[in-house]
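Data deposition worksheet. Section B asks for the primary sequence of the deposited chain exactly as it was used as input, without tags or linkers unless they were present during the calculation. Section C holds the resulting structure in token form. Section D is free text for depositor observations; keep each observation to a single sentence. Incomplete worksheets are returned to the depositor.
Section A, Depositor: J.P.
Section B:
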Amino acid sequence: MDIFISLIIKTCMDTVYMTGMIIFVGFILGFLRKQSIENFQKSFGWRAVAITAIIGVPIHEISHAILCIIFRHKITKLVLIQKKDENGVLGYVKHAYNPNNVYQQAGNFFIGIAPIFGGVFAIIGLMYAIIPKIYNEFLTISTNNLQVTKISYVAISGVLNSYFGLIKIIFSIKNFSNPYFILFLFLAICISSHISLSTADIKGASRGLYIIFFIILVLNVFGFSKFVMAESILRYNIILVGFLIISLIFSSITYFVSLFLSLIKN
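Section C:
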């Protein structure tokens, strides 16, 4: 009985290591998105949301679609952008899969969370194309953080401080005199306005999360998990944090811009 309980606890912990940060940040992004949209509507009406949607929603839906293809789901309908319906939906992907296929079932989790990473990749791509100096700085910080081999107060502080330094570089005063940076900021705000997960996304992801838990449980039963080094898991989470911090940075900026506009308008 003790072995069984230990196995379940270890599986829960491993699942949290793999997905917990994504889920946690996903809820924060959802809150920021909801507040940002409300503020935009208060300041300039639905048109303000529609402007961000033209760029942000297609990236959101394409992210779902790409992961559908990777996990061999059949896309039955793809709407990149549409007029807001009665539920406020601006775009969607309908897909079907074989419920008896473990790979396709697990794919539900990754398909559900895809907009977070699709949005981040799009923002990083914009950095590379429009403001390459900041992109190079992000790349250097990410590479340096991968040298961390164990969790400690010093290591965590170093990782967080490096990204705080990146924020200072991105939003330095001199950048605001660069028209290319203004363009980048506008596009990043449009993307981050729609980077979070909808209720349907969360429901879809939860279906895959159960399967991921089961897969990890089976691996633990057969002892395969002992071949996965703690250092590899740590580096995975460091890379993950880097991407998630980018999503939080620009979603937070979007929120504060929307709040500022709302206060001015009122």
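Section D:
The helical segments are 2-44, 46-70, 102-130, 132-145, 153-170, 179-192, 199-221, 230-265.
The mean pLDDT is 82.
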